[in-house]
Design goal:
The protein is mainly α. The chain contains ten helices and three strands; from the N terminus they run αβββααααααααα.
Length: 253
């Protein structure tokens, strides 16, 4: 079921991209309302220029949405700390880490994508909702997901700064409060996990530096010896499996 929903989401996304590429067709029939025809999508009964503007805006803001409303930030921060702790500098490459972070983000967001598909995109495809109504409905699953991993302290901070009245329940909070609070919470969590990952490799660096200094090897940088040891330890304990497993479990607590 999740795979089906995911395929529908990507089909819808490809349809939007083809719209931007100029493959959208506007059919005007006598006595009928405007129909925006896309591959696999037919939207009726709303202003086509407004719809296209909304779709253009959505695609323009897609990188910001990916960074601020998904686990992508936490995952990428942890990968950065892990690479720095190993001391490999450019291995794995940035493209590899970002690609893995993207696929892990999609893996974690599949339930949310399915909810958005069911509540907003499917009715929108059949012309039952306007673009604005679909956008409003799609915000509910995203808000629920973000609130699950947002600290109350961060929510209270932005609620106080916005001078908005305190809502009866967290689900009533506006996205302008939930999104920055979620980003701050994810940054804090990412740095916490990254610091924990850093500690065992820091111990290896300290021990190596102490040993090389005690035997009089002042001209040999400790990193020359500690880096292979850290990589060997990481491989022996199957580090990638442990890190990815712990990372995914942190979103299912």
């Amino acid at each position: 079921m999740s795979a089906c929903r995911g395929s529908k989401f990507w089909r819808w996304f490809v349809a939007l991209a083809m719209c931007l590429a100029g493959h959208a067709q506007l059919s005007l029939a006598a006595g009928q309302q405007n129909i925006l025809q896309l591959p696999g999508v037919s939207v009726k009964g709303e202003s086509t220029p407004i719809t296209i503007i909304l779709l253009l805006t959505f695609l323009t803001l897609l990188p910001a949405i990916l960074l601020s409303m998904t686990p992508f930030v936490r995952i990428l921060i942890i990968f950065h700390f892990l690479r720095q702790a190993l001391g490999t500098q450019t291995a794995p490459t940035n493209q590899t880490l970002i690609g893995l972070a993207l696929f892990l983000t999609y893996f974690l967001m599949q339930p949310v994508i399915g909810a958005v598909q069911k509540e907003a995109l499917a009715p929108y495809e059949h012309g039952k909702l306007t673009a604005l109504q679909a956008l409003e409905r799609s915000a509910s699953p995203m808000r629920t997901f973000m609130l699950s991993y947002t600290r109350e302290k961060d929510l209270a901070l932005f609620l106080e700064m916005s001078k908005q009245p305190r809502p009866a329940k967290p689900e009533d909070l506006s996205m302008s409060i939930v999104i920055p609070a979620y980003v701050i919470s994810e940054l804090k969590t990412g740095f916490q996990i990254g610091a924990v990952l850093f500690l065992p490799f820091l111990v290896i660096d300290l021990v190596t530096a102490s040993v090389t200094t005690s035997v009089g090897m002042f001209q040999l940088p400790p990193v020359v010896i500690s880096t292979p040891l850290k990589i060997l330890l990481f491989v022996v304990v199957d580090g990638w499996n442990l890190v990815i497993g712990s990372l995914l479990r942190s979103f299912h607590v």
